[in-house]
Each structure stands twice: as structure tokens, then as C-alpha cells.
Amino acid sequence: MSTFLGMPSLPVFGTGNLHAAESFPTAAHRELGNAQLRANLGHATHTIRDKRLQVVSELPDWEQLRDAGSAIKESVMARLPELLEQFEQNFTARGGVIHWARDAGEANDIVAGLIRDTGETEVVKVKSMATQEIGLNEYLEEQGITAFETDLAELIVQLDHDKPSHILVPAIHKNRTEIRDIFLREMPGADPALTDNPAVLAMAARAHLRRKFLTAKVAVSGANFALADSGTLAVVESEGNGRMCLTLPETLITVMGVEKLLPTWQDLEVFMQLLPRSSTGERMNPYTSLWTGVTDGDGPRNVHLVLLDNGRSAALADEMGRSALHCIRCSACMNVCPVYERTGGHAYGSTYPGPIGAILSPLLTGIESEENSSLPYASSLCGACYDACPVKINIPDILVHLRSVDVDSKRGKKKLPSQMDVGMKAASWALSSGKRLGLVEKGLPLGRLAAGPDHKITKLPGIAAGWTQSRDIPAPPQKSFRDWWAKEHHGPETGGTNAPARGTARADAHLNAQDKEDGA
Amino acid sequence: MRIALFATCIVDAMYPRTAQATVSILERLGHEVVFPSGQACCGQMHVNSGYLKEAVPVVANHVHAFDTKDYDVAVAPSGSCVASVKHQHPMVARSCGDTALEARAAAVGARTYELSELLVDVLGVTDAGAQLGSYFPHRVTYHPSCHGMRLLRLGDRQARLLRSVHGIELAELPEADQCCGFGGTFSMKNADVSSAMLEDKTANIRSTGAALCTGGDASCLMHIGGGLSRQGSDVTTLHLAEILASTAEAPASVTGEIRVATGKATR
Ligand code: SF4
User: Fold this and answer.
1) Would you state the torsion angle of the CA atoms of residues A342, A345, A346, A352, taken in this order, to the nearest 10 degrees?
2) Contact A495 B47 (CB under 8 A)
3) C-alpha angle B12/B213/B35, rounded to 5°?
4) Cα–Cα distances in Å, from A279 out to A53, A55, A227?
5) Which of B11, B48, B230 minimises the CB distance to A400?
6) A328 C-alpha to center of ligand 1: Å?
7) Torsion angle (degrees, nearest 10) of CA A431, A433, A436, A441
């Protein structure tokens, strides 16, 4: 256990369920083969995103709310150490106990130790991304402690021994018939006549969970927000099962990423408008639970909070990437992402799938991790995620930034440059001068020849083979526009290497060198 | 007005008619078009693929070619290239610590327009049929490209222009705002996902019964057209500029050789 004192000198990268086991293209290839998954996902994401658009359009000040959310988060990141200390003081003064964890291993040890101290071997769980991230359930199981998920979707995934594929709707990849089959197979005492009617399924889960709520002595939760000025924690949910866990047991252990802080109670106002509309497409979520320390005669007697770094300081140190920590895990970005819609969450390999996962996972683990370095490329940069994000995280720009970190980290390390490296170098040469591009374009008739009589190129070698797997390339024209302009249009030319030099020394030196190389 | 044409590398090398059509439209409106011959490419492919170091000379070249007093505004028939010039060039210059280049890039970006943006906002074209003589008697569907829609906020400018073309029948494209799956090198690095996105886009296009799909980005159209061609579909793609340039006297045809009234050169 260590106290968080600002930025550590060496970044501690995140561990746990943040690392992909295979590269995104490989995993995506497999998941794309699952037609049922694609149909389920397409249906579910379309439904949620239509609902979100509807409720968002009701608010005339939605854009200002997004700006406010983004500004509050930015100020949190700028003063994180100070706010954490303030929170710690307030939380402790009201009877809570704080524990600091650098990575997944430390956090798991702390939680397991706290549970062992109670003498219990069963705990109920509130849906939590942080505990998914550190792999808490698996770790507890190794320690002989059983953790029961109480969120309906998490319960389904857990009963099926599967992994969540969406941060808000963990069982989004399953349809109701599949869910009925899982209940029949895995739920003790499930009615053999169970139908796939959602209400019937919900009642079965309810009966199952009631038994757990009434016996559990220990609960484990995450937190959506922590308010520094009062030492309060908040959980936002739809089903009320979380509230059962937060109020009935004697001991409550919360695991929370350090970035979840908000400076004041009043800041919550902004996020309570942004979060439900962005996540479930509801005006307000049914249950918001807030707790401040221990209160005599009410709720848990022992209240613990594990504050988790697990790569967050490293992400914070990345000037371009740090705003990924603004994320409030609403899942709006994945619901609008065309890549997520087709591959599902498992293709991303980490607890955090979709656009936010594509930047957050490599930021937390460091880009050097081989498989996670494929994640920033899992996007066509269409920008839908940025438009949807309630706290305005510029995901496309961070994706591009992480791609450049990846390319740079590999420079000079490889024995042989990749095809992409070679292609990009060659293209950089050809595309950094009008003369050179003009020269290259003299080869267009050759391309026409390669295309053959049907004016199509249908097979290309190397990395370009990916293109021709489902697309033709049209035969190039006889001559380029540049040639047409020079020979036929006789219009005035301007600029470029003929223009009077007005450039910066650096750009001019570069262009002069280039002219020389071209024999100008 | 003196307007500098940025033809973009794909248009220059693969779709010269799109650039010719752009010239034609602007000249018909009485403007003078110049072509900065030093231009080559916006460098977007390098930036988006993470090759920032390799993007620097490409960006420097573009800034150098367009940083002159010889024109009033610059135009490109491509939303994504204009977005790159506006948003990425200053960032690339900053990445190599060249603050002077950054300032020049920002200045070039400030007077660079996407075609429909220039036509509607600057040149006051609201009725292509009346002001340009645009005539295109075909059923057409329209794909608004992501970068035009989300980075440049083009809104309905392109659709408005299309709707005002004489003879055109514009068919609404289902899920129009969905990405076609091109994404530059994404279509090679993640070819499977890209193909799945393309499949849905082309299915939506075919469902409209349109003879062709138009849009403002040659790269997306090359991707979509390449998919339709592989699927053996008769539906083709044609850049918005070529539809606007099409007239009753010199109509652009839906398939095969496309004739465009090319302003000065053919007069
Ligand atoms: S990145 Fe934005 S949209 Fe995505 S989950 Fe986080 S807050 Fe929501």
C-alpha cells in the first residue's frame, strides 16, 4: 500500500484484464464470422442509439452541458493529487478507510485481505468496471471466495462463464433465447418451464438474487463518482440490485479508479444529466446511491475504498492522451461505433472495448505491449464517437496520436522495415513535391495496362491485398489532371516551387533540397 | 475571385474529371482558377497511419504551394483533404517544433474550402440548375462522407446543391451517416471489418434503386465503387462536382466515358 503523491517518476503500467491476447485484426476476423453476434449487436446498438438521440435532443443546452462536463474533468486531471488528498481527509473523517493500490495485483490483495478479515467466503457484487479491470472475481475464486454478480446482465455473463462484451450491457451479444438456456443450465432451482419472455427471465433472476442479498455480509462495488468536498461516493444504476448490496451487508468494499473524482457535490449535477441520457437513453436513471462514511444504525458498519492507479498516472502523463481519463463509462461511443457494431467487445481483448477501449487500454498498459498496440488502428476515424461522447473526449485525435507513438516506438527496433514502413517512406517522397507526383503519374498508362480490358484491377499483392479482397480498383486514367491542366487548360499556374520564397527557413531548406534532388 | 484549386492526390492521379468539373463550375460562375503546380497531397494518409515524421515534408510542401498571395481562396473537391489541411497541418508542424510553419499552415487552412462550402457560403450558389445549368436526369443516391459531415460540419450543403440540379431524382440513402469503411489504411490493416462496413453501405445503396451513388470525397467513392464493381452491380459512383458540372449540352453519363464541359479549354 502506498500513498499517492502526484506523478511517480517511473510510470506504473496497468495490469489485469487490460491486455489483449491477440491482435485486433485476428480477433475481429473470428468475431466477424459470428452472424448471430452481428445481428444481436446491430439490433441492440441501434435501439440504444436511437433512444439516446431522442433524449439528448430534448435538452436545449446539451452542448453546454458537454462543455461543462469536459471542463470539470479537465480541472480534476490538473489537480488530481490535491483533490485525492482532500477526498481522503473527508472520507476518513466520516469513518471510511482508504487503501491505495498501484496495480491490479495490489488491489486484489487488499480486497481479498479485507474479505478474509470478515471471515466470510461469499460476497455480493455491484456491477463495476474497476473490478473487471483488475480481474477481482477470478482472483477471489483462487482464494476460495465466491463473488456473486447482482447486475442482471453481469449475472448472465457470469453464469455462462463468459466475459462481458459491452461496458453497460455486458450481455449485449446474447439474445433472450440464449439467456433462458443459460438460466436453465446454470441457475440453481430455475423453473424448468422457464420461457424467454423478458419479464419471466427477470423474475427468475430476482428470486435467485434475493437469496443472496438476504444472506450476504460483505459487498464489493465500484463507484461512478467520488466527491472531494464531502468524501461521498456515488453509484448510478437501473435495477436497484446495487442499492441492495450497498445497504444490506455489514462490510462494503469499493474499488475505484483515481480519475473518478469530482471537486464538489454541485459538480454532480452536470454528470447526472450527461450520464443517464448518454448511456441508457433515459432522462434519469432509476437508482442513484450516495454514501458518505458510516452512519450509526444505517447501512454497512465497515466502509472501505481501494483507490486504484493501474496505469492512470501513466495515462495522465501523456499530454495528448490524458483526456481519455475523463471517461464516465457511459458507452455512448461504442453504441455508435461501426467497428464495435460488427466485431463486438471481445475482439478488443480488454475490459474496455469500443472506441474508448481502443485508446484507454493502450494508454493504461503502455503502447509497447504488442497486442494492445493494434487497438488504436481499430477505427476508420469516422468521428461518430467524438460526436457522441458526453464529456467530449476527442477519441479520433487520440487514436492518431497513439498510432504515431506506436510507429515511433518501433522505429529502429525492427530488423527489417514493414511493408507499411517502406510504402509510407516512398509515398512521403513522391507526395512532397508536385514534380515528383507528376513523374509518378507518368506511369498511369502502365496501370491501365495492368487493369486489362475490363478496366479493373482485381488483385494486388502485399498489404494492398486487403483492399482487393472485396473491392476492385478502377483503371487509372490516360493522364493526370496535372498533365491535362498543363497541356490543355493553359490557365495560370501559381505557387509551389515557382512562387517567391516566403516560407520558413526550415520548410524552404527542405524544399530546396528536394528541388535539387529532382534536378530542378 | 481568384480561386486556387487543390486537386488532391487521388483526384489528380485517378479522377482528373472531378478536378476538371470543379474548374468548369468555378469558371462558369465567372471566377478565375489557378493551379499551384507545386501541390501534391495533404498528407492525411501519413498522419492517420501514425507516420507523422513522414507527413512533415508532405505538409510542408502543401503549405509552401498554397502560402502565396496569388489567390483569394483555395478549394478542394474533398471534405477529408480539406479537414486535413485545416485540422492536421498545424498539428503536424507543431509535432516537429516548427512554429513558423504552424502559423503558415493555419493561415492556409483558414482560406481553404471544401467545394460545396465554397459554392454555398462564399459564392452564393443556392440553385445549381439556374446558376450553373446543372442537368443530370438520373436517379441518384448520396453518401455524406464522415469527414465532411463531422469535421467540417458541411450539414446539408451538398444535398441542397444536388437537389437543385435539373432532372435529378434524389433517392434517400438508408443509414446515410454511417461510415463506408474506407478510413485510408484502415481498409488494408483491418480489411475484414472494413469489408463488413462496405457490405452494409453497398446493400443500402442498392436498396435505393439509384443508378449511381454520389458524394464529395473521391476516396470514399473509390471504395464504394470498388465494392459495387466486385459485387457485379451496375450501380456506379460519381463525384458531386461532376454532377454539378453536367449540363444538357454536355451531359455526364452514368457509365463509361464521362463528358464534362470544361470551361475555357473546350470553348
Ligand atoms: S469515451 Fe465518452 S462516450 Fe465513450 S464511454 Fe467514455 S464518456 Fe462515454
Assistant:
1) 150
2) no
3) 20
4) 11, 11, 21
5) B48
6) 6
7) 60
For residue A279, give the ligand 1 atom closest to its CA.
8
pLDDT of residue B152 exceeding 60, the answer is yes
Percent of chain A with pLDDT over 90: 73
User: Would the pTM count as exceeding 0.90?
Assistant: yes
Q: pLDDT for A425-465, tens place per residue?
A: 999 999 999 999 998 998 888 888 778 777 888 888 887 88
Which DSSP string do the residues of A256-312 spell out, in sequence order?
EEGGGEESSGGGHHHHHHHHHHHHTS-SS-SEEEEE-S-BTTBS-SEEEEEEE-TTH
ipTM: 0.94
Rounded Cα gap, residues A238 and B253, in angstroms: 56
Whole-number Cα distances in Å, A358 to A9, A354, A381, B78: 26, 6, 12, 28
Main-chain dihedrals φ then ψ at residue A288, nearest 5 degrees: -120, 115
CB pairs under 8 A between A and B: 290
Q: Which amino acid is at A116?
A: R
Q: Tens digit of pLDDT for each residue in A303-358?
A: 999 999 999 999 999 999 999 999 999 999 999 999 999 999 999 999 999 999 99
CA of A330 to the centre of ligand 1 (A): 5
Distance CA A507, CA A477 (A): 32
Query: Is A215 part of the contact surface with chain B (CB cutoff 8 Å)?
Result: no
Ligand 1 pocket residue status of A330, Cβ below 6 Å: yes
Pocket lining: A129 vs ligand 1, CB cutoff 6 Å: no
Cβ contacts of A518 on chain B, cutoff 8 Å: none
The answer to whether B38 contacts A427, with C-beta atoms less than 8 Å apart, is no
A494 vs A480: CA distance, rounded Å? 18
Tell me the CA–centroid distance for residue A32 and ligand 1, in Å. Answer: 24
DSSP summary character for residue A147: E
